[in-house]
Specification:
Elements lengths: L2 H17 L9 E7 L6 H20 L8 E7 L4 H13 L5 E4 L3 H14 L3 E3 L14 E3 L4 H14 L4 E7 L2 H13 L6 E8 L7 H8 L6 E5 L3 H12 L6 E3 L6 H7 L7 E4 L15 H15 L5 H20 L4 H9 L4 E2 L4 E2 L15 E6 L2 E4 L2
Length: 383
């Protein structure tokens, strides 16, 4: 047998042997996440985690990204900003993730920011406060509308109704404190006078004392509550118990079906700004967001048999922005992905149409907010 024949036989044997083996799998793309799945902010973090798990699974079934599967590496911070910091360190140092999508609350997010900036890793936050993206931080982005935008949208609606003297009630947590600060700064610029200004603790279960002070303040035409979670529903109940009848507004931190359920009849007539996701079925057919929010709502409902919330929508947008950026960058190189996120133009998500820039790491304008009112136990689209 000559040398050429031996080489042919060796090649054939190698092919036959290799045919029975799976193709070499490329290393997965690691997406890290720290969310508040338990604790006071669980109503935010739970749908966020479910959304990430659902869509990572769907993306992987469809072939992954850049020919690689996605691996979601997740930690629950229990609504504790200190734990969020520790878990972010673990994601960066031990898990070696390519990008982080998470940070349920403003407190958790801001505890993670110094770590991602030092490590130079892209971070897409799911939290609300404007401080996350102002001033702009090179490696930090966010998907939800800001507290300042919420106040602006609420004030616009109040002025249409001739309401200019208002009372503010806010919780002392990160979101409420930031919202209070932004509301106080914005009010005089928009011709709104704060005639009462009360706060309550994040774990308080009775806001009657604060609302009684507001009720007894002369000239109050409307009340604006800046809170998230069950605190907002407690405000509604105490408000009605005290026989207060002026218009009551909330910020977007309570924008979920659960808020309506917990509030019960006390929620009737309450207005708040929120993403189109909550009124997917009520959007006109030509609304650019309708196909996106309708598809997300159906996928989430089918899988988890529960109502969607805007918070899960923030996670959907964060994941999709990350994935699309990797595709455009053609790589998971952190600097290239960061640049691609910043270059996002016209992405239509559950939160609105996103166009980012070197000076805007959120990319939403006020048109992304819809003004909703609770009518007959459901959301009604006001404008």
């Amino acid at each position: 047998m000559n040398k050429r024949s031996l080489l042919k036989m060796a090649a054939a044997a190698a092919l036959a042997f290799g045919a029975g083996l799976p193709a070499y799998a490329a290393d997965p793309i690691k997406i890290g996440s720290v969310l508040s799945v338990t604790g006071p902010a669980a109503f935010l973090g739970d749908p966020e985690l479910k959304t990430l798990q659902l869509y990572v699974e769907n993306i992987n079934k469809a072939g992954g990204v850049l020919g690689r599967q996605i691996q979601l590496v997740h930690y629950d911070d229990g609504s504790d900003a200190g734990k969020a910091n520790s878990f972010a360190k673990r994601l960066i140092d031990d898990d070696k993730v390519d990008i982080i999508v998470g940070g349920t609350t403003t407190g958790s997010t801001m505890s993670m920011v110094p770590l991602v900036e030092k490590a130079e890793i892209p971070f897409i936050s799911l939290a609300g406060a404007v401080v996350i993206v102002e001033p702009v931080k090179k490696w930090v982005f966010k998907t939800p509308h800001t507290d300042r935008m919420a106040a602006e949208k609420v004030f616009e609606d109040m002025k249409k109704r001739g309401l200019t003297k208002i009372a503010l009630i806010s919780d002392t947590g990160g979101f409420g404190a930031s919202g209070k600060k932004e509301t106080e700064a914005l009010a005089p610029k928009m011709g709104i006078t704060l005639v009462a200004n009360e706060t309550y603790g994040s774990k308080d279960t009775d806001m009657t004392p604060q609302l009684t002070k507001i009720k007894n303040t002369p000239g109050v035409q409307a009340v604006f509550a800046f809170s998230f979670g069950q605190g907002g529903a407690v405000v509604n109940k105490n408000f009605k118990q005290l026989g207060m009848t002026m218009p009551l507004y909330h910020a977007h931190g309570v924008a979920s079906e659960e808020f309506i359920k917990i509030s019960g009849p006390a929620g009737e007539g309450v207005r708040l700004p929120a993403a189109a996701l909550l009124v997917a079925d009520k959007l006109p057919a030509n609304d650019a967001q309708k196909p996106v929010v309708t598809a997300y709502r159906k996928a989430y409902n089918d899988r988890f048999k529960e109502d969607v919330s805007t918070f899960g929508g923030h996670a959907y947008d964060g994941l999709m922005l990350a994935v699309e950026a990797m595709k455009r960058a053609g790589s998971t190189d952190k600097a290239k992905v960061r640049d691609a996120i910043e270059a996002t133009k016209g992405y239509v998500g559950t939160g609105g149409k996103v166009t980012m820039s070197p000076t805007d790491h959120m990319g939403l304008d006020l048109t992304a907010f819809r003004m909703l009112e609770i009518k007959n136990g459901d959301w009604a689209l006001i404008n």
